[in-house]
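Justification of computing resources. Each target in the renewal requires a structure prediction run like the one illustrated here; the chain below, 203 residues long, is used simply to show the kind of job we budget for.
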Amino acid sequence: MSKLNNRLKRVLESITDIDFILKEKIEDKILKAALNMNIIIISEQFTKLKDDNEFNILKNFSNENLKAIDKIKDSILNDYENSNINDFIQNILPGIKNSIIYLNKFGIQIIMNEEKIINDNKYDLHLIYKEIDRLAEFAGMKKIDKHNYISKNDSPSELGCFIFSNLQECEWFMDNVKKITWFDPEDGIQDVLEHIKSKRDRK
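Resulting structure tokens:
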């Protein structure tokens, strides 16, 4: 387990290093090399997890993110001009980080369509997040950050209460939610929004 923890810790350290590098004013050439190095380190740790047959751990990461890791590594090693490192950092790394945080925990990640909310001007964005936080607290969830919550009592029933008994019944939420991800230490990651939509379509 210590080897496993060290691999995951190394991934988090590289993500933290990437965040730090981006905040500093570094010459472009040095910046690219530093980012590439940390991305390669992240990729190597996941390769080692696969080699060690740590499939119970890997199931906590979405297939999309795992494929993206392999793709960006291949782009960097082959020095492809069109390798989209910025897209990887902005859209893939946060999900990887959250998956590590959620390991052995029941959690929910909620992404709202902020652009739609602002453009429609039907609901107040600040009040929406405030109400989500209130319903999370009511359901027994602990807020981690703007998008992420974990069960206080390590129970899937609290996730169910939060999503299916509360948020699913709110028009302001369902009209504007972009993604709902359910984290389960046994079953891995699930796209709950697609489940809700398919269930509604069958009615």
